[in-house]
Amino acid sequence: MAAKPDSVQLEVRDGIAVVTIDNPPVNALSRHVRQGICDTMREAVANAEVTGIVLACAGRTFIAGADITEFNKPLEAPGFLEMIDVLDDAPKPVVAAVHGTALGGGLETALACHFRVAVASARFGLPEVKLGLCPGAGGTQRLPRVVGPEKALEMIVGGNPIGAREALAHGLADEIVDGDLTEGAIAFARRAVAEGRPLARIRDRDEKVAPARGDSTLFDAFRKKHARRMRGFEAPEACIRTVEAAVERSFDEGMAREQEIFAELMAGGQARAQQYFFFSEREAAKIPDVPRNTETLDVRRAVVVGGGTMGGGISMCFANAGIPVSMVERDQEALDRGLATIRRNYENTAARGGFTAEQVEERLGLIDGTLDLEAAREADLVVEAVFEELGIKQETFRRLDALAPAHAVLATNTSALDVNAIAAATGRPESVIGTHFFSPANIMRLVEVVRGEKSSKETVATAMALSRRLRKVPVLVGVCHGFVGNRMLFARQREATRLILEGAPPEEVDAVLYDFGLPMGPFAMADLAGLDLGWNAATSTGSTIRERLCEAGRRGQKAGAGYYDYEPGSRTPKPSPVVARIIREFAEERQLRRRDDIGREEIFERLVYPMINEGAKILEEGVALRASDIDVVWVYGYGWPVYRGGPMFHADEIGVDRIVARMKELEASHGEEWRPAALLERVASEGGRIGGR
Ligand code: 3HC
Ligand code: NAI
Asked: What is the CATH number of domain 8-266?
């Protein structure tokens, strides 16, 4: 018998073998676990005293999947399928006992068992698609045979887990256990033995998939419905094809198809980018000098100052997390408007089926609108979201300093101002920090947590923990104009404007980024945000294209015209001959040389290389802790396609040496803004990489 690693234990309790996996933190199927499962299962099967087998996990969860750290190297034996077959072929009933999450290879392991019991809080899912993969241990063939192809498509292509009750309703779980899970699973196994229940091998089942055979309607409708969400991704379509195989082919043929598709995806660039991103997101939570056990403030009551676009959205975030919040406005009209917008937002979500009417009222009940900043006296944490003017923000912080309790954290939502200058308006700069939410704040997942010079470790840890409680992804950044995201955006915007002045039409510039996978290009984005942000008719001098457009009443989508034309009631941008003329005239006035040969490659380089260069400067200055943090900012804040990792990951895909060489050419033709950052030069000369991994 092969040596049994400690991560899998076997114990026989009155004729039932209990195989327990203990591989913290999430019981991933590392090589030694696969080996341990094979060995202990064979031992249990060979033991004549054993009549049934329970497969359970120690710690916080059932198996959370393959060990992702083993990907991209040759998989050491035993492989997943060998282990799966050992379970499936067992001649004695095998019962999976699920708590926490049975994910990916974890759920596939459970599906290879003959029965599954779970605690009520357990969750079941195949999230491989989020790593750029399809399930690769039989999940694509077994799940449709249990829950039917429609539900299987939803779970495999969507990648989101379902709860135990839903799993029970779909036949994925056989029983919900109250009380001790292992005992419940043992009792289930005993009953199965006593009743002589046939071993329920999913591979032999056909009744759920047979009705869909020879009919592509289900798959066609699914593709159509999710086309927008799947745009650019390879894995979702590949996952659909595996489920098609489950419907159309025998189990063994379907398995062969799954293995083929899994291997193709694993070898592709998207899977590498998405796996990099999985770890990047978790890395961003780690701050070297602020350890995980740093004390954080328990935020029980919050105050948001300003009830405009951002203040309203941020107040909703608190209410959604169950935290009572007072939203402070400066006059009744603004307050009424802000509260009405919040109500409308919630009601719209309810109308789309997101909430019940009761949930809407519950959340609204947690938001208290007021004109009195005295509300700050009760606050554990304040988020300021007033106008973007240093003087107004400093005055607000001066007053907050006088009112808020000594323990409170005072946060600003400024998008570009100096957090240190705001903190200096208080007598407690250690309690001041930036929490830069993105618009719409109730939807966008990113929060840049801006660490001021004097922000204490507790303040930093509190802002990070609170963001997570609000279901956001916080990334720690330092103080500089625009922090990480907007600073890089400004660099891109500068070059986008130059491109249209040189002769590239705005729609071509936008199309390059859209086709790359971003939700929209710089001009469509500017139209959406409004061209008149920070614009003043009284002081406008027509010195930029943007000013000219505003002066012509083209203030963006809300005005039906901006860089693009919009038909009434439509959000679809249409190229505008008027804008083409305004741009041409502006360029002629300035005697700018225009060309009609600006190709897609040049557009791409000129939009993306300045972002990478700015990212390198951000790293040099220590404004971001690591290159991968910048990527997390861009994926969650600006919709950079996750299958391309992020701008810094992409820099390595292109090759930093190639980028530097091209930037030097552009420096010669377009000036010193194109000079590569010292860090880029160094990486290029060493032939290294700038990204984290
Ligand atoms: N492999 C290796 N490490 C993993 C892992 C995995 N599958 N899942 C999580 N980890 C690590 C994380 O990197 C993290 O490490 P760190 O503490 O050093 O940063 C640690 O485990 C804890 O993870 P989280 O911080 O994410 O813990 P949570 O409690 O918030 O979440 C979880 C737990 C829901 C299990 C979450 O970690 C998760 O979603 N994991 C990934 C699940 C997944 O994608 N499984 C499919 C893998 S692919 C597969 O199975 C292929 C198969 O079909 C052949
Ligand atoms: P907004 O103009 O929509 O809202 C500001 C609100 O603050 C107004 O309703 C105003 O009446 C109120 N206000 C002004 N002074 C006040 C005071 N002394 N007390 C109470 N209320 C006061 O502005 P928006 O867009 O919500 O921006 C707020 C902050 O968030 C700014 O710092 C902005 O830079 C930042 N931000 C904005 C983003 C956006 O996309 N709009 C994104 C991220 C940050």
From this structure: 3.90.226.10
